Predict the structure.
Amino acid sequence: MRTPLIAGNWKMYKTVAEAVELVEALLKEVEVGYADDRQVLICPPFTALYPLAPLLAESPVALGAQNMYPASQGAFTGEVSPVMLQEIGCSFVILGHSERRQVFGETDELISKKVQTAIDYGLTPVLCIGETKPQRDGGEAEAVTLGQLRAGLGGLAAEQIQDIVIAYEPVWAIGTGDTATPADAQAMHAAIRGALSSHYGPETADAVRILYGGSVKPDNVDTLMAQPDIDGALVGGASLQAESFLRIVNFR
């Protein structure tokens, strides 16, 4: 049985003071009404990771980073290593987000190295994949998404795959207010699980959590989470306010 995961990607929002305020508001509610049948993760900016770590250490909310470099140390100005993330209490890291691919030019090869490195250092990668609007309109959505999946996982073995989280994020739905219909999202999630099954076997594929991301909101989370192959959500804008994020966490 896959435990649903609701993850908040704060992107480049929240000062340290604002981040602490939001986490304190979340913990008041999560600690009171948290259900054991779901997992919560927040991924704030790098500047907020260290001050938030002690607040989350004994809580049911996990801490993750939004990116990392695939090396333990070195002359990589402006980058953060998996060792640094692990030291301060991160257990997850988002990799291959469409903004990293499009704005910063990250390639499938680099993302694959990041995924392997995260696993090597005990961090759970949240591997993001998904097509653009022109690719969807051109009938290439599944080919593009599954191509990114294969490239991102590279030569990983089945035992390494089971703990990876996949996030299907159609680029055209991220921050736009447009959301894939539950049926469309389920179809792509089923295709992703089918590809994992073909390569790693059905038992491994059944263990992998596949999240949906792309304008997830309180008013659409319930129908998305009702789909059999959607195991959670990677939430952007709606994770920046305690009330909206908590409603998503408490999906029905």
Summary: The two ends are 17 Å apart (CA to CA). The chain has one domain: 5-249.
